[in-house]
Design brief:
Keywords: Glycosidase, Hydrolase
InterPro entries: Beta-gal/glucu_dom_sf (IPR036156), Beta-mannosidase-like_N2 (IPR054593), Galactose-bd-like_sf (IPR008979), GH (IPR017853), GH2_Domain-Containing (IPR051913), Glyco_hydro_2_cat (IPR006103), Ig-like_fold (IPR013783), Ig-like_GH2 (IPR006102)
Strand content: 25-35%
Protein name: Glycoside hydrolase family 2
Structural class: alpha+beta
CATH superfamily of the largest domain: Glycosidases
Family: Belongs to the glycosyl hydrolase 2 family.
Radius of gyration: 24 Å
Shape: globular
GO molecular function: hydrolase activity, hydrolyzing O-glycosyl compounds
Length: about 550
Amino acid sequence: MRPRPEYPRPRLRRPAWVNLNGEWEFGAGDSPRFNQRIAVPFCPESRLSGIGELSGDSVWYRRAFRAPEAECLYLHFGAVDYRATVWLNDEEVARHEGGHTPFSVDITQAARDDLNVVVVRAEDRLSDKTYPRGKQYWKANPEGIFYTPTTGIWQTVWLEPLPRRHIRGLDLQADLDAGAVDFEVAADGEVELVASLDGAVVGSWSGPAGPGRLSLDRVLPWRPEAPRLYDLQVRLFYRGQETDKVMSYFGLRSLGTANGQFLLNGEPYVQRLVLDQGYFPEGLLTAPSDTALRRDIELAKAFGFNGARKHQKIEDPRWLYWADVLGFLVWTEMPSFHEHSAAAEARLIAEWREAVVRDRSHPSIVAWVPANESFGLGEIDEAARARFLVSLYELTRTLDGSRPVVSNDGYEHALSDLCTLHDYSGPSEMARRYRRLGSTLEPSAPPHLPFLPGYRYRGEPILVTEFGGLRFEDSGGWGYLDVSDGQDFVEAYRALIRALMDPGPIQGFCYTQLADVEQECNGLVTADREHKVDPALIHAITQTLKEN
């Protein structure tokens, strides 16, 4: 069976496509060599690739395909880490930089009617810490909080046959208060949009392609407890004839902050998040199947969490689709660089822009996190650090003004819509620290400064977005706090949650973490997703009511 056979772009769907996953020729080195076989879309460092080892800074892929009949043909790459060059039939057709975001190329002119050969070179210099690489380690052997790196293709490669006049893109922004959805259709011609709910048409719009607003007859909000989604059909017409049609979906929900609280659909809402790093023992950054992506969300919900902070990873769009469908809040966080330079800043900004534009129509995403714990910024002075963080905040707000932006998750915030703290103290210290605002934000507690000089707390909701990290003391690996057995785990978890939910300023949390990752053994489940403790016991504690 072809690996990862599901449609890779759930927010803009057409029935006709060709999946190019599966066996490709593969090789490593500065010049093209194809002396191995690899299973795309799994990176060569993963077991599922069939290779399972580091392959060097440059890798090469090659495969043949027959082009489907089409007026226009696009070649899509979900993600290639880090710098990709693509040739078709010995002609260079694309270059892309950025290891976590997609790119596409129109290959209509380069493709042949018979057999075509595509070659991909991926360059990912392991020692270069100026690349935005997140938790991928820059040394051969993973250690501490860093893991086996990912090189080359790690998301689906596919062909899309299109009509000459087609819909190039679709952006959706729901307006719950107005009972409408604002849209922008990138196309040339007239368009018709039809929204439906439970199979019944609830709104339509027609006019020239571009921006518009579609009003709805029935208005049902999206929230984790009832993730109502509207189906959307978009048709393109030229001179009265339909030339293209795509299917999409959207959810209606609003986000805001007031009186130190996070608001979902106008009401105070406690975010009970779990840290999710999106690593899989057999596929690393690539889930072995679409079912595995869905299962991670179902696991988190079984433990009582209503969302996840996707840590240092721009996740596969299929995971975001399941978050939309299942009702699961998402914080999207940009993978950091780990050595500062002007080039590092430019690389992160460019890739972050692509990520936000790709994902801003997902109702499940409720916060943007362009930086974490000053990763890569420790060696520059505070003024330069603040300048960069403010530039990321302002860029993100420009790209999407509807969601809170966390300038630097964990500590040393500049401008920020949420005040987020990381604290791996034990339960008694946590209980003392989070009873009143003064003790919560004093310079010595939590362990890192919450704000850079020149910036201060302005009444933002305060959330503890890393804490816990409980590890069974005989399990090997490492964690932040040790427990002896299952009962000890449950009681320690209860004490930690009580420390946050008892009267005080904290309005939400993110527990570390959902699953073990390689040498880091502080997950609620093992790396193979086996329960360490009874989810029902943890669920009841996670859902502890906030006391005011």
